[in-house]
Amino acid sequence: MKNVLKLTLVLALVFVAACACNSQAQEAGELVTEDGAAVEAAEEGGSSGSFLSVIIGSGPLGIMLWLALFGAAGAAVYFTVDCAITVRAKRIMPQALIDNVTESMVEGDVLKALQNCEQEPGPLANILSAGFSHVEEGYDVIQESISTAADLETESIMQKLTWLSVVGNLAPMLGLLGTVQGMIAAFSTLAEGAPDVGVLAMNISQALFTTAGGLTVAVPCVAVYYTFRNSASKIILQMEAMTIELIKDLRNVEVVEE
């Protein structure tokens, strides 16, 4: 399901970009030469400098780079939405779970608290379940189990954010590769002798467009990554404090058999 959503986002971004480029190209007028041949030209500077023309004129490698950049943009949107949904205090530490477990611990009913955790699965519930499952083995074992479970849940949360960082680091590299390709093509044009100014300008446009595309994807990714990372660190600390508060009575509690 996640892969389908990713592919849908990527295709949607490509479709929107293509529509925008076609709209820009359609705004171009036509100039008629003296012999009657019609040539397309934009109202300002010609259509050869349009975004669509830059992509098509960049060659197979350039088109692959642009598809990779669109894919990175789609992945960035997907991981941003996913983190916005999952990396929240209400999702990680449901208040209903906290209230139910607190009530069960006041009653001294560990089995009921364990059942409450199983009914509302999540990071906090998984950590508490690890402790409640070893209540008969002593408080030291409970603490060790909770510590291990907390490390696993923390790593799981941080892995979601890591993908945003990966996209933020990968996009500028793709843009730089496109820049290198465009500059190689520009110098190759110069090496042929008297260069065609239009072709030379197109090669330089390709280099600058890919750089701009990579930075356009990377800058929001980096900002969103650090925003979510700081939020996640705060939530994790709150979760650890809440866990300690909920299990402190396990030193003296007795298991209630059903």
Overview of this protein structure:
The protein is mainly α. The protein has 2 domains: 1-57, no CATH class; 76-251, no CATH class. Helices cover 78% and strands 3% of the residues. The protein has 9 helices and 2 strands. A two-stranded antiparallel ribbon has the order 1-2. Strand 1 (29-32) and strand 2 form a beta hairpin. Helix 3 (59-86) runs antiparallel to helix 8 and helix 6 runs antiparallel to helix 7.
Main attributes of the structure:
disordered N terminus; 3% strand; 258 residues; two-stranded antiparallel ribbon; 2 domains; mainly alpha
Short description:
The chain is mainly alpha-helical and 258 residues long.
Strand order of the largest sheet: 1-2
How many helical stretches? 9
Structural class: mainly alpha
Number of strands: 2
List the SSEs and their pairings.
Blueprint: H1 2-26, E1 29-32, E2 38-41, H2 51-57, H3 59-86, H4 89-92, H5 95-107, H6 110-119, H7 123-132, H8 139-191, H9 197-247
Helix pairs in contact: 1-3, 2-9, 3-8, 3-9, 5-6, 6-7, 7-8, 7-9, 8-9
